[in-house]
Specification:
The protein is of the alpha/beta class. The protein is built from two helices and seven strands; from the N terminus they run E-H-E-E-E-E-H-E-E. The protein has helices at about 15-25, 75-80, and strands at about 10, 35-40, 50-55, 65-70, 70-75, 85-95, 95-105. The longest helix has 13 residues, at about 15-25. It is globular and about 35 Å long.
């Protein structure tokens, strides 16, 4: 199992730039990582929603890690398999609608 050859979730340049802006503005440590996780949603049929967090703790043995656009991305190994080839982007629509968005890859669940 060679992590370098496995497809992994990636960030666009815009998402990476925004990540660095938030890390700087919030005065997080320079080694802060982007954690990709899931949150259970009882009222939705699919039951899961992706979430992002700024993480300063070291990854655990159950985590997959890699760098995309200079940002260290951390997620559970099982989730890494599900989200292979997916992308995180940052979009802004108007003055007050902005945020990170998830774009599934060809093999990712929608």
């Amino acid at each position: 199992n060679e992590p370098a050859s496995e497809p992994m979730i990636t960030l666009t340049q815009k998402a990476a730039t925004e990540f660095r802006k938030v890390v700087s503005a919030q005065e997080f440590p320079a080694d802060t990582k982007l954690r990709v996780g899931v949150e259970r949603i009882a009222e939705q049929e699919a039951g899961l929603r992706l979430c992002l967090a700024f993480e300063t703790e070291p990854p655990s043995a159950n985590d997959a890690t890699h760098a995309s656009e200079g940002v260290h991305v951390v997620l559970e190994k099982e989730l890494a398999e599900l989200l292979a080839d997916a992308q995180i982007d940052f979009v802004q629509q108007g003055a007050d609608q902005r945020g990170f968005v998830f774009r599934p890859g060809p093999g990712s669940p929608e």
